[in-house]
Amino acid sequence: MRLLFDQNLSPWLCPAIRDVFPDAVHVREVGLRDASDATIWDYAARNSFTIVTKDADFRHRSFLHGHPPKVIWVRLGNCSTTEIERLLRKRRSEIEEFLADDQKSFFGLS
Q1: pTM over 0.70
Q2: Nearest to 52 by CA among 26, 87, 33
């Protein structure tokens, strides 16, 4: 489960959840800190990542283009990094099911 966290999510999330999602990386870790959505999309597709984001643009891109890459859209609004971490842990099994499903390309988390 290779998760690529978008710039709009804290880079501190990745080390915080690596015990349950060991292949989680932030765009900063792969040199995409200021990259466009299209560049992040292409990188994720080429490298078998699922994009984790709060950006609705990735939701739209997912509906237009399908996958790869898959998209997990975090819909918590203004919240702490700890709240997002809790959500990812709580919904881990659903995330794993989504990632294993070859037909699904988008998953909204709230």
Answers
A1: yes
A2: 26
